[in-house]
Design goal:
This protein is α+β, with helices and mostly antiparallel strands and 119 residues long. The chain has one helix and two strands, in the order E-E-H. A two-stranded antiparallel ribbon has the order 1-2. It is elongated and about 105 Å long. The N and C termini lie far apart (84 Å). The model has no long low-confidence stretch (mean pLDDT 83).
């Protein structure tokens, strides 16, 4: 594995109107400092470095999906609990029964024809 670090420091040169010698200068960027640093490490050390970095990346990905899944599960749990409570609160109140006759929902008609309970 090889790593390089480079640094360059530049200066902007522009014309200066009040200096006679610098009035005709073009707009340019001049480099004034350049540094280059490089390093080469062995394959053994490179694999050790990669495994330590990839371990934390993998751990972060697993944690991300775990939190997302548990949050989604919690939302589904809250929705289910609210639906259950709503069903329990409205269990005894059924103002509209859309059943067919002969099933015990409406005893006024016995030929199997659909009849709503509220006329």
């Amino acid at each position: 594995m090889q790593a390089d670090k480079r640094l360059q420091l530049n200066i902007v040169v522009r014309p200066i109107s009040f200096l006679k010698n610098a009035q005709n200068l073009p707009d340019v960027i001049l480099p004034i400092f350049f540094a280059n640093e490089s390093v080469v490490i062995s394959d053994k050390d490179a694999n050790k470095f990669k495994s330590s970095v990839y371990f934390f990346l993998k751990l972060a990905t697993i944690l991300q999906w775990t939190l997302l899944g548990s949050g989604g599960g919690f939302i589904l749990l809250v929705i289910g609990a609210n639906l259950y409570k709503y069903h329990q609160d409205n269990k005894e109140e059924e103002p509209y029964s859309m059943g067919r006759t002969g099933t015990g929902t409406n005893d006024n008609d016995s030929d199997g024809e659909y009849v709503p309970l509220i006329n």
